[in-house]
Design brief:
The complex is a heterodimer.
Chain A lengths: L9 E9 L9 E4 L2 H5 L4 E8 L1 H4 L4 H14 L6 E4 L5 E5 L4 E8 L3 H11 L23 E7 L5 E8 L5 H15 L29 E3 L14 E8 L1 H5 L8 H16 L7 E7 L16 E7 L9 H10 L2 E2 L1 H9 L6 E3 L5 E5 L17 E7 L6 E6 L9 E8 H15 L4
Parallel strand pairs in A: 6-7, 11-15, 15-17
Antiparallel strand pairs in A: 1-6, 2-5, 3-8, 3-16, 4-5, 7-8, 9-14, 10-18, 11-12, 12-13, 17-18
Chain B lengths: L11 H15 L1 H31 L4 H21 L5 E7 L10 H11 L4 H13 L14 E2 L5 H23 L8 E6 L8 H9 L6 E5 L6 H15 L4 E8 L11 H9 L3 E8 L10 E10 L4 H5 L1 E5 L5 E5 L3 H20 L2 H16 L17 E4 L4 H10 L8 H10 L6 H11 L8 E8 L3 E9 L29
Parallel strand pairs in B: 3-4, 3-5, 10-11
Antiparallel strand pairs in B: 1-6, 1-7, 5-6, 7-12, 8-9, 11-12
Helix pairs in contact in B: 1-12, 4-5, 5-9, 6-7, 14-15
Classes of the chains: A alpha+beta, B alpha/beta.
């Protein structure tokens, strides 16, 4: 008799593929921008939980059919990575498709979320496939969708998305489009040409700090970490943030400041002096269908010349808001030049804060019902760690946030105690 | 023409000589009888009506002789009309169109292969090379159970596929013809590799609540040529049962037959066989004469099973690991050629015009008596048929037949395009090809169609149809949404 704690909760995996409904044809090749290639070693995971009312009567066939039409629009997601004669990767739109996984969980949705609150959502990764592109690069799907059925009849939808395709906003838009097709709503087709070159001129010349070069990874696009990293999620309610709210500072900056200061107390070397901020200037409106997925985020760095652990939060937040230096232009220059063939990481090169505040995560609806909980994570993160700030669902009284940290194992426990003691932030 | 006269074949004059020769021989009877008739008419006119009346009166008839003669005439006429075979009409047919959710692009097929056969890179390479040269397109379909990695072929899934394919085709047939289920007198279902109990024909009877005195048959194991065998059976039954409707359902169920091992000869069918099915309504009722699309003229069946090599060339067996698959031998093309020759020898005299037959006979006599080195004369079947439907078994089969029968690219276009769009759908592929020709607006009244199918055994079956009425487009068939894109150029090798 296997003790409940050792039983694997998610099992019965069945793999299949979904392809675009119409032939993409013409052997379309999709060029990858330098920003895409800078992000290639990272993977985004999103898990959406639905109660049984939303999933009632939905078979796996009902869930797959809208995906065919969705992939007709998002034909790059169905493609595969190939290398051109110069060795530069591009996407061949050969209709390879998206991998679909069906699985079962032996808990109910409420049980899972309750356990997750205790264990900081560290098991959520079981609900989305652990994706790595390669070693068979030309035959690795760029996206996986996992449907997990729970004992109560509820369902979770887990998206695994290679960052080389696009940012988390694109990933969320892709899934929202799928749900819209399932609800038989018309997708407004706004076709944009992808922005091939970054629009940001270089203000400063020199090397970008937000990137870190890693050893060549060849055809297996994941970086090795010095120590094991784990992912934990925290809830911050709107009330807690309200204390520090001022006009010019957003929730994101406040939370980033809190985390930065806490990390400086956790680390022996007094914490990082430079952090990377990843934000997105696109406003996502509900009725717009995005064009092909794109890496449209702005990467900036913030340097602190003072001791981070000793200042007021408001001041630190102001520093982040005002003094961040966009580095997209520098990144573009770096990757167009000598370092074209090198491999880099962005998330975890420095302590990275990713702002997903504007993402319409709760816009993914099954049968008109919103998910009860949505969580996003990033895989392939470097040793400095990453912090994702994601909107919470409205039950929390509006403006709560979920903060998902990916850090080396030994730092996570200390961070948890600091957050609990100093800020009253817990799971 | 014998090779002793070399340069003439390029001469335009020879072309006219050939045309003259064909016209002379084909219309021989007309050409001989016409002068005779003219002679008689001239003679009668010359004699004048009085002379004729005298001739008539001089022949003495008494009552008994008159009665006996007329009785004899009536008797002979009755025997003639009774023994004439009934006309079999093909009222209409419907082909199954798989949904887009079953679509399998090359990239997906190869990726799944790599994952399933991860320990056998050589087998994966082999499949890739086959697929590149197969002549299939990116829109062929496999049933849902085969989309899983690894495939999940349960009996339930196989039945599910059979239901979807057969019932869709039948619903479409009912809609097109206005046929009521209760009016079906004969039902023949052929599916080679899936034969559950109760049979697929029982499944159809159950679904549509057909009559309890229906004559139903289920043909299994007879390979890709079973479609024409079913047509032959229906024809024979319709000779015995007057005023009847026969429905023939031809399909191949892929789900239980996907080979899961690594033997290369057995992986080949996985690359080529795809989902498909057709339902055909045949009738001997005179009331269908007007609206029927085709009339069945001949069915010729040739079986080479007596030869051991032919018998074993398409063989279902277990591989070394116990996995069941269909083994295709390397002599397949040679045996197919032999079977085709046999079939042509039988069908030739039935369909070829007298001129071609005479030429063939003369060359045959010449080879036997004068000089065995003379090239055998290949009759020009293009004179006997307007359209050809060659079973889309694979690119090699179509190439081989095109060469042997000296057909142009347009003649084999229907077969090649069906292979591209739908893959090898086994016994139903002939009906997709027929529909292609109709959808292109090429089928006119009086056109003759030759359907040729090869199958395990080794069999070569042919059917000859004559078009009853010009068929308008669109036909309401599986080509409606894509016919404008065809014909496509299919490259020798598609780079994956």
């Amino acid at each position: 008799m296997v003790p409940a704690s050792l039983e694997i909760p998610v099992s019965g995996h069945r793999f299949s593929s979904v392809v675009p409904a119409k032939v993409t044809g013409g052997n379309k090749d999709f060029e990858l921008t330098n920003m895409d290639l800078a992000m290639k070693l990272h993977y985004i995971k999103g898990v959406y939980f639905f109660q049984s009312e939303a999933a009632q009567g939905l078979s796996v066939h009902d869930l797959k059919v809208p995906m065919f039409e969705c992939l007709e629009h998002y034909y790059t997601v169905s493609g595969r990575i190939r290398r051109s004669e110069t060795g530069r990767p591009f996407i061949k739109c050969n209709d390879g498709g998206v991998r679909i996984i069906e699985a079962r969980c032996n808990q109910t949705v409420d049980e899972w979320l309750a356990t997750a609150r205790d264990k900081d959502h560290s098991l959520d990764h079981m609900l989305a496939y652990d994706q790595v592109l390669g070693p068979d690069l030309g035959f690795s799907p760029l996206a996986f969708v996992q449907f997990t059925w729970f004992e109560c009849g509820g369902i979770s939808v887990g998206l695994s998305w290679a960052h080389v395709l696009g940012d988390a906003f694109s990933a969320s838009e892709f899934l929202n489009a799928w749900a819209q097709i399932m609800a038989e709503e018309q997708l407004s087709s706004k076709v944009n040409d992808r922005v091939l070159k970054s629009e940001f001129p270089a203000f400063v010349s020199g090397k970008p700090f937000s990137l870190k070069k890693v050893d060549p990874v060849g055809d297996r696009w994941i970086t090795a970490n010095d120590s094991r990293t784990v992912t934990h999620s925290f809830h911050i309610t709107g009330k807690q943030l309200h204390h520090y709210m001022t006009d010019k500072i957003s929730d994101f900056e406040i939370i980033s400041a809190i985390i930065w200061q806490s990390m400086s107390k956790v680390r022996i070397d007094l914490g990082p002096k430079t952090v990377t901020i990843c934000s997105n200037n696109r406003l996502v409106r509900g009725d717009e269908l995005a064009a092909q997925p794109v890496n449209g985020m702005t990467l900036s760095t913030v340097k602190a010349d003072f001791c981070v652990s000793k200042v007021e939060i408001a001041e630190l937040a102001k520093l982040i808001a005002d003094r961040k230096v966009p580095e997209n232009g520098l990144i573009e220059d770096l990757l167009s030049g000598d370092e074209e063939k090198s491999d880099f990481i962005v998330y975890g090169a420095n302590l990275t804060f990713v702002n997903l505040e504007g993402a319409d995560l709760y816009g993914l609806q099954l049968k008109g019902l919103k998910p009860v909980f949505v969580n996003y994570m990033i895989n392939g993160v470097g040793d400095e760690g990453t912090c994702l700030i994601v909107p919470s669902n409205e039950k929390d009284g509006g403006n709560g946030k979920i903060v998902t940290m990916t850090l080396p194992e030994d730092q996570i426990e200390k961070l948890k105690s600091i957050l609990e003691n100093d800020w009253n932030i817990s799971n | 023409m014998p090779p002793t006269l070399p340069d003439f074949s390029n001469s335009v004059n020879l072309k006219y000589v050939k045309l003259g020769y064909h016209y002379l021989v084909d219309h021989f009877l007309t050409l001989t009888l016409t002068p005779v008739m003219i002679g008689i008419v001239v003679e009668i006119v010359r004699l004048g009506p009085d002379e004729l009346l005298n001739m008539w009166n001089s022949v003495h008839f008494d009552l008994i002789q008159l009665l006996c003669s007329s009785f004899l005439l009536v008797f002979i006429a009755t025997v003639y009309f009774m023994s004439k075979p009934r006309c079999i009409y093909l009222v209409d047919y419907a082909c199954y169109k798989p949904p887009v959710t079953c679509r399998v692009p090359f990239a997906t097929f190869m990726e799944h292969s790599r994952l399933i056969l991860s320990n056998n890179p050589k087998s994966v390479e082999f499949q890739m090379r086959i697929l590149e040269r197969s002549g299939l397109g990116e829109e062929t379909c496999l049933p849902p159970a085969i989309h899983y990695i690894p495939p999940k072929p349960t009996m339930e899934a196989a039945r599910g596929e059979a239901e979807v394919v057969i019932f869709s085709a039948m619903d479409s047939l009912f809609e097109k013809t206005g046929l009521k289920p209760k009016d079906i007198d004969i039902l023949i279902v052929n599916c080679s590799l899936f034969s559950p109990t109760p049979s697929l024909s029982a499944m159809v009877i159950n679904k549509y609540k057909l009559r309890s005195n229906i004559k139903s048959f289920n043909l299994s194991g007879m390979g890709c040529s079973a479609g024409l065998i079913s047509i032959d059976l229906a024809r024979d039954l319709l000779q015995v049962h007057p005023n009847s409707n026969a429905v023939v359902v031809s399909t191949e169920i892929i789900t239980p037959n996907y080979y899961q091992g690594k033997e290369r000869a057995m992986l080949l069918p996985n690359c080529l066989f795809r989902m498909g099915g057709a339902a055909i309504l045949l009738s001997n009722r005179r009331s269908e004469r007007r609206r029927a699309k085709y009339r069945l003229v001949h069915v010729v069946r040739t079986h080479k099973g007596a030869d051991d090599k032919a018998y074993r060339c398409v063989f279902e067996e277990e591989d070394r690991e116990g996995k069941v698959g269909i083994n295709l031998s390397k002599d397949l093309m040679a045996i197919a050629g032999e079977a085709l020759k046999s079939n042509i020898t039988t069908i030739g005299p039935l369909v070829l015009p007298g001129s071609e037959q005479l030429l063939f006979l003369l060359t045959l006599i010449g080879r036997k008596i004068f000089n065995p080195k003379w090239k055998p004369y290949i009759p020009d079947f293009k004179m006997a048929f307007e359209h050809f439907c060659i079973h889309a078994g694979g690119r090699a089969v179509i190439d081989e037949l095109q060469k042997n029968l000296q057909l142009s690219a347009e003649h084999v276009e229907a077969s090649r395009m069906t292979l591209h769009r739908f893959g090898n759908t086994s016994s139903s592929s002939l009906w997709y090809e027929m529909n292609y020709i109709e959808s292109k607006g090429r089928m006119k009244k009086g056109d003759r169609v030759w359907q040729i199918a090869f199958g395990s055994g080794f069999k070569c079956n042919s059917a000859v149809w004559k078009c009853n009425r010009t068929i308008k487009t669109p036909t309401g068939g599986p080509w409606d949404d894509c016919i404008d894109r065809y014909p496509v150029h299919i490259p020798e090798v598609v780079k994956l």
